[in-house]
């Protein structure tokens, strides 16, 4: 049985969650500056896919194949899902095909492309004002895999609906739409039908990806076209079960020395190992959990400040001893 979380609950924290994908103001500013030319791309391909050969901010033609486009899903195709597809730089016909979903729910696939596993990233040292510069990511997964970066659920990135009611979504309905997207995309790109297929993503996608995998498996078993060469799924720092995820934060904080042995043992005993469904009359457990929160914030803040200070000391030293630092690491 798949639990159907409501997107409404997750959307209340969407901004906070998405910001973890953009850890600095510079990265957010670069993303905002690059959006205008992406809008041009999306406007051009609303009724078809297009091959993008060059991008503003990148000094030459793209050394990889980038395709963008829309695929309509739903009975009347009232949901239009936008995607970026990048062919493997090694062997497109043999390498795995990955469907990548960024978390949130509601974080654009562009964050996965530019900040995580895609072939491009911002060149901050050469960007200035309103002119972002792009450079190649030497660790891109597209060096060995074909990747579809999908703006899902509807309302994410450039994906949109033609009716207001079509924006009303849930985890299971979004997974069903993504499965339909994948079926239609593969029928339009039959040369990738035999490639090993992996459904991948991070963060909140930990809830969605397993549902999609089950849809694909069930579709293969039922003989739906096209058959998909499903090999598995990949998740990074995934959300799974909300209660278990939150409960495991206390043991994790203890194992990483954010919480002392004494405080951990007291909290574990007073709360009976349940840190989510706490009895409001259990004063000892509530006090322990409040102390855990306070201590964790203090330790994390202190660690960040120490790292920030150390980083700038090293940076100053490197600037003054450039002969010792031939690589551009700052």
- What is the name of the CATH topology of the largest domain? Rossmann fold
Largest sheet: 8 strands, mixed
Whole-Å distance between the termini? 49 Å
> How many DSSP H or I helices?
10
CATH architecture of the largest domain: 3-Layer(aba) Sandwich
CATH superfamily of the largest domain: Alpha/Beta hydrolase fold, catalytic domain
Q: Give, in order, the helices and strands.
A: HHHEEEEHEEEEHEHEHHHH
How many domains would you count in the coordinates? Answer: 2
- Overall CATH class of the largest domain: Alpha Beta
Q: Give the helix level as a range of percent.
A: 40-55%
Give the number of DSSP strands: 10
Mean pLDDT: 82
Spans where pLDDT lies below 50 across 5 or more residues: 1-23, 43-47, 324-330
β-strand percent reads: 15-25%
- What form results from the Cα inertia axes? globular
What's the Cα radius of gyration?
23 Å
Supply database-style keywords:
single chain, 330 residues, alpha/beta, eight-stranded mixed sheet, two-stranded antiparallel sheet, 15% strand, disordered C terminus
What does this structure look like?
- By secondary structure, the chain is of the alpha/beta class.
- The chain has two domains: 7-240, Alpha/Beta hydrolase fold, catalytic domain (Rossmann fold); 244-324.
- The chain contains ten helices and ten strands.
- Strands 1, 2, 3, 4, 7, 8, 9 and 10 form an eight-stranded mixed sheet that branches. The protein has a two-stranded antiparallel ribbon with strand order 5-6.
- The relative contact order is 0.10.
- Residues 1-23, 43-47 and 324-330 have low confidence and may be disordered.
